Amino acid sequence: MEKSKSLHIVMFPWLAMGHFIPFFRLSKLLALKGHKISFISTPRNLSKLPKIPPNLSSQITLISFSLPTVPNLPSLAESSMDITHNQQQPLKHALDLLQPQLASFLQSSKPDWIIYDYASHWLPSVAAQLGISRAFFAVFTAACLSFMGSPSTLIGGGDDGDNARSTAEDFTKIPNWVPFESNLAYRLHEITKYIERTDEDNFGPPDTVRFGVTIQQSDVVIVRSSTEFEPDWFNLLGELYEKPVIPRVNSVVYVAMGTEVHLSKEELSELAIGLEKSGLPFIWVLKNSPGTGESELEMLPNGFKERVKGRGFLYLGWVPQVKILSQESIGGFLTHCGWNSIIEALGLGRVLIMLPMLNDQGLNARLLNEKKVGLEIPRNELDGWFTSEAVAESVRLAVVEESGKVLRETAKAMEGYFGDFGKNDGYVDKFVSQLVDYRK
Ligand SMILES: O=c1ccn([C@@H]2O[C@H](COP(=O)(O)OP(=O)(O)O[C@H]3O[C@H](CO)[C@@H](O)[C@H](O)[C@H]3O)[C@@H](O)[C@H]2O)c(=O)[nH]1
Fold first, then answer.
1. CA quadruple 14, 102, 97, 164: dihedral positive or negative?
2. Which CATH superfamily is 8-247 part of?
3. Could you tell me if the CB of 2 is within 6 A of ligand 1?
């Protein structure tokens, strides 16, 4: 198995403890997966971070930039903790002046990704010009982000006049883009404090614009919350942002049936409705059907794509499967049980939801079922028929329900067998030496 490429990822949180901590935790999780992290902040902020665990010290580099001095900001202040509520804007002024240092760091180090916060709204375009992939890591709930609205609402002006908010009262109303019952709105006293700006606060754009531009110019938005906890809000957020919104818990189901299996229209439909009923986010790889010339995407039930918008991502054609499976947010793999796919998934400790169709796949499924690294979707033994309920229940059990915990843990333990590249290297060495001996 090819090891997924080790990435160089730059992290740049907003200057606040409530932001460094989740950014640092995410850095550790990514470093544990073998990726290199450059964590950028200012000297006093970096000194407040927890110690980097010894096993990750070679993976995470702390990069210190001095915070430029600006009017109205106390000299030693480097984070929101060090200042009053009214000094937030000067702190953002200082942050904005870090732009040239960030730009030259990115230019010289050429990372694969940069993960940033809402305040550095100038950073996505700097990264884009350098060809660096961009993720906004939002340390807020999907409900709060949905309440704030789409990037164009946040940026305001132009084409979004109807949704523009100008007075504090506007924030006490449930937004008209929320399509379901909700009581999510501010109380007047809460918002008055938030939108209050003092005279010296007029440097740089307001937070709404910082958020809007950051979201608009990112490739993906990572949300530090869970889709099981707030499924409706995650759905809405995907629609508002029109880009992948990745929850930070492992609940995304990756669905792929290899290169040879072609499902019938009826099977595709049952699978689609099952994924919809599961309520979980999913990434589904679809193929062209050589027989009919129709693609699987065209064969999906009417209205399905619209109903799962923002939660279900459908790809037609070839995708980098190992790269997708290695994403932190993947919670399970709905698979046809092709042996390559199984090795890849278990090498990354992903629990399996099995739907075998051809060749060795049925036997693979029996073996894997016995090993308790996943479960088979219940079928009619004679004709193989499965229902959307069976799909939804199996997916939920494997990925999120308490009763599936043992399957998830057993699958995770398989990383030791299939994901140990050192061991794999050892096998290859042994194999090569056997080849040499045999030739003698
Ligand atoms: O969009 C795609 C689709 C596939 N893959 C890769 O292609 C390979 C597919 O292999 P596998 O999962 O084994 O699926 P199939 O090619 O469908 O499987 C055939 O080959 C297997 C190995 O012999 C058998 O177990 C199966 O029964 C047989 O159908 C894997 O490495 C995937 O990661 C991608 O990277 N991107």
1. negative
2. Glycogen Phosphorylase B; (3.40.50.2000)
3. no
